[in-house]
Amino acid sequence: MRRPFPLAVALASLIGFHAQAEILIGAAGPMTGKLTWIGEQLQRGAELAVHDVNAQGGVLGQSVRLIIADDFCDPDQATAAAKKLVADRVVFIVGHYCSGASIPASGVYEAAGVLQISPGSTNPLLTEQGRANVFRVIPRDDAQGATAGDLLADRWGGKKIAILHDGTTYGKGLAEQTKKRLNSRNVTEAIYLQYEPGKSDYAAEVAKLQEQGIDVVYVGGYHTEVALMASAARDAGYAVQFVSGDAMATEELALIAGPAAEGLLFTFTPDARRNAEAAAVVARYRAENYEPYAYTLLTYGAIQVWAQAVAKAGSLEIGRVIDALHKGEFSTVLGPIAFDDKGDLTRQVWAWYVWKNGEYVPVE
Questions:
Q1: Residue 12 contacts by C-beta under 8 Å, 6 or more apart in sequence?
Q2: Which of 6, 35, 151, 162 is the most exposed place for a label (fewest CB within 10 A)?
Q3: What is the mean pLDDT of each run of 10 residues along the chain (364 residues)?
Q4: If residue 78 lies in a helix (H) or strand (E), which one and from where to where?
Q5: With a threshold of 0.85, does the pTM exceed it?
Q6: At what angle do helices 169-184 and 99-112 cross, to 10 degrees?
Q7: Burial of 52 (0-12, 13-18, 19+ CB in 10 A)
Q8: Contact 343, 127 (CB under 8 A)
Q9: Which of 41, 155, 135 lies closest to 93 in space, CA to CA?
Q10: Residue 99 to residue 14: CA distance in whole angstroms
Q11: Three-class SS state of 240
Q12: How many CB atoms lie within 10 A of CB 282?
C-alpha cells in the first residue's frame, strides 16, 4: 500500500513553488564513471524534452529550467545528489538510472515533497516501498526476469545454464527474478554465482564456465562487464551464448566487445524509436548526428508525463500531481502511458533484442 503524501510537506513545498520565477526540475544519473554513456542518454533526453516543453509555453505559463546531477550509480552519491537537488528547490526529478541509486534517493525526495519518475530503475523495491511520490516509465524486473527465465527454459532447458550477477541492487535482483522463473519451469541452473564488477578482464571467470561445459550464461549486471566476458569467451574460442537484461541497451557495449557482441541477446522495452509518436523527436536527434538510444526517449517521455500531469492538475502541488498521474493516461514518445496504484506502468512489456553488426535490433 502506498503511503498518503504528508499534507504538511505538500503545503510547504507549494509555498516554495509560488516564490519561484521559473520551475526547476532535476535529472540525475551516472554522468561520470563506467556508465557515462547511459548518463549522456539521460541528459540528452532531458535537455530536449525541457526545450520542447518551453517551446510550447512552459508549464502553467512558467518556463522550466533543468539541473543535472551526477550520482555515479552509487547509493551514497545518489543520496548526496538528491539532497543537493532538494536544496536547489526542484519540484520534480527524472531519475535515477540505477536502482541502487533511485531507491535511497527516493526517501530524500519523499521527505522534501519532490516527485520522482525514473526512466531506468527496474528493481521492484523502488515502488514496493510504498512512497507516493515515486513512479517509473520502465517495466519492472519481476516481469523482465519472467521473460528471461521463459526463454532460457524454452530454448536451453536441456542444456547447462549459468546465472551470474554482480551483487548490485539491479544485477542481483534481475538474476534472482530470472532464476525464480527458470526454476518454476522445472529447470535448475548448473551454476549460480556472483562476480566482481569493475575488473578489466574476466578470462578466469569465463575459463571456469568453459570447464563446466556451460552452454548459455545469463548475466544480471551492466554492459561493461558483459562485454568483457563476451570478449574473453571469443578469445578462448568458447562458443557460449550470453543473455542479459536492459542494461545492454547502449552502443558502448559493441565498442568494448567488438565482434564478440555479435549474437548477444537481451531484454529491453519495445523500441520507442519505431513509434509514430516519436518520429519527429527521433528525426531531430538524428539531424544532430545523435542516435536516441534506449534511455534517451525514456527520459524524454518521463518529462512529458510530468508536464502533462501538472497541466491536468492545474497545480504544482505534489498531492494534486500524484492524483493526476494515477487517474490519467499520457501521450508520449513511448506511446500511451498509465500508472497503477504503486506508480508502475499498467502494461509490463519486455521485448527481445540481439546485437548484430555493431548495433542492437529487435528479434523478429
A1: 113
A2: 6
A3: 57 47 96 96 98 98 98 98 98 98 98 98 98 98 98 98 98 98 98 97 98 98 98 98 96 96 98 97 97 96 98 98 98 98 98 96 92
A4: helix 75-87
A5: yes
A6: 110
A7: middle
A8: yes
A9: 135
A10: 28
A11: coil
A12: 20
DSSP structural state of residue 258: G
122/108 Cα distance (integer angstroms): 19
Q: In the chain, which ranges are E strands?
A: 23-29, 64-70, 92-94, 115-118, 134-136, 161-165, 191-194, 216-220, 241-244, 265-268, 330-332, 335-337, 351-356, 359-362
If DSSP codes are grouped into helix, strand and coil, which group holds residue 228?
Answer: helix
Question: What gap in Å lies between CA 362 and CA 353, rounded to an integer?
Answer: 4
Q: How far apart are CA 355 and CA 337, in angstroms?
A: 28
Distance (Å) of CA 83 to CA 4, 29, 157, 193: 22, 14, 47, 35
Q: How far apart are the first and last CA of the chain?
A: 39
| Bridge partners, residue 66, by sequence | 25
Please report where in the chains the cell 578462448 appears, as a residue.
236
Beta bridge partners of 134: 116
Nearest partner of 197 among 36, 34, 30, 31, judged by Cα: 34
| Helix or strand (DSSP H, E) at 246 | none
